[in-house]
């Protein structure tokens, strides 16, 4: 190993040689990086090159969208840096062969230039973007544009999932959970309006995973179950909901409604069986 070789992990799995120094900061986890690279085997055979395509390659660090050697190696670079990475198979493709140009168990060599990167958004920036999407969804909902409202809620849910909750303090985590809960509740209502009870039920379940005693989630779940003729499920859900919120008039009304539906179904089946036996 030459003097300017860096053993990134200390086990020889990812070796780095700086060919040209860079400047500034290094990418943080979840940064979107832009690189140019040339990939070769140890025998010098080139198997891939962004330079040949004249198109930089972008990926988000730490999302496992690239080989582990890149996820661990690129964050050690500065903007403008050109480095040579020698990556053993365990941190590349292992015993797999992703293409005919890369044999199984290959050590790969990459000359990588870090062109730039976009730092990850902080949790509060993501939170504000989700809040705006939720509010836009609410506006669409008020206008009766149920599917457009759901599209905004879906975008908010997707965005809020980018927040690394493990790094939040108790108060921050509470705010994220509360917003996530509201978005799922609103999504469920929008889907109920469109008649998409299957997806509405999924949103209710996710809301209840956050707050198992949320009366709105329980009520909307009951509507979804009842609309799919699962009267037993609807009644059971409303029964629990009334234990949580005994004075909820809407739940009481729906409970009576689905009890009647259940009794009508029992009566219908009884009459059907009676007719069958008479025929016999």
Automatic annotation (TrEMBL):
TPR repeats lie at residues 181-214. Its EC number is 5.2.1.8. Keywords: Isomerase, Repeat, Rotamase, TPR repeat. It catalyses: [protein]-peptidylproline (omega=180) = [protein]-peptidylproline (omega=0). Residues 30-118 form the PPIase FKBP-type domain. SMART domains: TPR. Transmembrane segments: none annotated. It comes from the Eukaryota. This is peptidylprolyl isomerase. It comes from Anaeramoeba flamelloides.
């Amino acid at each position: 190993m030459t003097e300017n070789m860096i053993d990134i992990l200390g086990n020889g799995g990812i070796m780095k040689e700086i060919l040209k120094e860079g400047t500034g900061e290094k990418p943080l986890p979840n940064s979107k990086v832009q690189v140019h690279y040339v990939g070769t085997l140890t025998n010098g055979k080139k198997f891939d090159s962004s330079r040949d395509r004249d198109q930089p390659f972008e990926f988000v660090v730490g999302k496992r969208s690239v080989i582990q050697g890149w996820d661990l190696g690129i964050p050690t670079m500065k903007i403008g840096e050109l480095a040579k990475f020698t990556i053993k198979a365990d941190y590349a493709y292992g015993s797999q062969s992703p293409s005919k140009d890369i044999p199984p168990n290959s050590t790969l060599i990459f000359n990588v230039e870090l062109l730039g990167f976009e730092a990850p958004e902080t949790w509060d920036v993501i939170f504000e973007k989700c809040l705006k999407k939720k509010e836009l969804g609410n506006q669409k909902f008020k206008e009766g544009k149920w599917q457009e409202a759901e599209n905004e809620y879906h975008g908010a849910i997707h965005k809020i999932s980018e927040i690394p909750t493990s790094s939040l303090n108790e108060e921050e985590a509470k705010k994220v959970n509360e917003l996530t809960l509201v978005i799922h509740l609103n999504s469920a209502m929008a889907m109920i309006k469109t008649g998409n009870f299957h997806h509405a039920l999924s949103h209710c379940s996710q809301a209840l995973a956050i707050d198992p005693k949320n009366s709105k989630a329980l009520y909307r779940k009951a509507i979804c179950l009842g609309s799919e003729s699962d009267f037993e499920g609807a009644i059971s859900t409303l029964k629990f909901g009334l234990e949580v919120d005994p004075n909820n008039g809407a739940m009481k009304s729906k409970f009576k409604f689905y009890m009647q539906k259940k009794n009508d179904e029992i009566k219908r089946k009884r009459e059907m069986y009676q007719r069958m036996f008479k025929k016999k």
